[in-house]
Amino acid sequence: MTRERGGWRKYHGLGNDYLIPLDPQEAAPERVDPEAVRRICHPHYGLGSDGILYGPYPPSSPFFQSLRQPQARWAFRILNPDGSEAEKSGNGVRIFARYLWDCGLVTSDAPFVLATLGGPVTCRILHPVRAIQAQMGKVSFHSQEIPVAGPPREVLRERLTLPGEPAPLLFCAATVGNPHCVVLLETPPTRELALRLGPALESHPLFPHRTNVQFLYRVDDHALQVEIYERGAGYTLASGTSATACAAVAVKLGLCRSPVRVHMPGGVLELSLDDAFAATLAGPVERVYEAWLRPDLP
What we know:
Layout: E1 7-13, E2 16-21, H1 34-41, E3 52-57, H2 62-67, E4 74-79, E5 85-86, H3 90-102, E6 112-115, E7 121-127, E8 131-138, E9 158-160, E10 169-175, E11 179-184, H4 191-202, E12 212-220, E13 223-230, E14 234-236, H5 240-252, E15 260-264, E16 267-273, E17 278-283, E18 286-292
Parallel strand pairs: 4-6, 11-12, 13-15
Antiparallel strand pairs: 1-2, 1-18, 3-4, 4-5, 6-7, 7-8, 8-17, 9-10, 10-11, 12-13, 13-14, 15-16, 16-17
């Protein structure tokens, strides 16, 4: 076995962890094998991860060109541990920015643009470990953009009843380039609540593309406490797009004012929103390890 083949680098943002191939020839495949993604991400039979980031795809690549985001410097892909592909990930974007810094492809704190399936994201290295910033774009609450079934509308303070639950849930929906269902709570959320309700909400018929699910509790004018059940990944310690959606919903409803600190089990992310609900996210990224799979494994 050579150390160059089958190598992976692992990072995490507040416990939300991703793998990125070490070998540049393996880092930007035009075709991705979902079964291989599932095996590599498996916590017991693989390396264990919340997903895989592939890239950087250069402007000359078919994948980059298919996104039609000419302002971007590179593109990258986000694969969930179930093998499905995500449109956008706040922590994934920040992790990939740190990866580019570690590889020497980014060498200053000047902003640069990355292309994703969920749209372009402007990143900036404020500090390689303590603070990587990403401009997440404009948050929308409109049903046709998220999408959410039913008539065109902003999906705010709606009620949803789940089988076996004694009372309907009060929720809002939003998109940050990927769909979110934000459940509003009057008491702090728990991991158990997210595990109990998350799967049914993720695949509820209201959400034709499935959805990420957040359970939100207002702490004060500038702070939220959140638990997360991610589409394609399950219970998650932290999520950048989830934090963005929750902060936007809280500001939209008048529960909070920007900036907003979103407290998750993995840690805290800082969100700023302007009057048009364009969101900027900042938080830490840590490099965890490098590893090499055996040749007879994917």
